[in-house]
Amino acid sequence: MSIYLDNAATTAQKPKVVANTVAEILSGQYGNPARGAHGYSLAGFRVVENSRQQVKELFKAGSEYEVAFTNNATVALNEVLKGLIQAGDHVLTTDWEHNSVLRPLYQLEKLGATFDVITSEAVTGRLHYEAFTEKLRPETKVVVCNHASNVTGNLLKLEWVKTFCQKHDLYLVIDASQTAGVVPIDLSDGKIAAVCFTGHKSLYGPQGTGGVCVRQDLPLEPLLTGGDGMQSFSKVQPKELPTLLEAGTLNVPGIAGLTAGIEWVLEKEKKPSLGTYFYQALKEIDGLTLYGDFTEPRVDVFSINLHDAESAVVSELLWEEYQIATRPGYHCAPLMHQALGTVDRGTVRLSLSSFTTKAELELTLNALQNLAQR
Question: Where in this chain does the record put each Aminotransferase class V domain (predicted)?
């Protein structure tokens, strides 16, 4: 029996209803949404519109928000950041960020935008929140933050950041890749400009799904342009959301599966997290270094190292000898590893899901104990 603890990358175990729903959409009864008035197209359209409503319910989003679907959070972040930030604009971000935020910012920097990074403490990865005010400029326009670090599991003090952005009239963009479906996100106050999410992690949808719940007053330019099925003679992408961000045919089977995943998340029985148990046991293993802030609320993502071993070696041993799937290396978050002091070897990341059992964690802890004693 193998144990899967790489859920921060993607959840391998999904509710059965997700696969069943995808199969239903592929049965031959669903066409291209908004591309005709026949029953096949209308059936596809209804699937997509139902999913938009499910996403809004998940994020408690009112009528001032619209949902646009993409094929992952990376595309959603690119669409928002490149559609919003212009030459001369200044951006605040953090060293928690994934390359899906950092690389667009590096590209925008070459086009005349600037940005500053809010740094973190070594080992704990705790953000220096006071630096938001210190690095604020008159030309600051956007704050983009990871809601939870995909390396340490640390959770952003979202209410603090929302208040900061409201006070200084800034657009707040949240990367919810690690939190959508796990940590409540409430858009009812309208203070967040956009929440970019992926479908294949804690929403338990298929890979290749995601999107953005975006405030309709956000002055965006389209990143991609193409067919919309409605305004064929227009030389530009229609400005209306969600069409502005949805050029081309949508992934209807994937979106339907995402809807099923969201419904499962919203309806499933809430159980206590196994994260506290896992943390308490991990910290008792001699020679194991645990990275992150465990004094504040967090998600169930744990980064460790054993003695001075390379993270890739430890992860390979966990798989080859114990059939435990983990993720070594840098997790596409280079600034986080610079802050933690792990650039030389990365970390071994273990991440839980709703399908993780205590028995699996006990086996994992035994394996780590054995490796630490070598």
Answer: 3-362
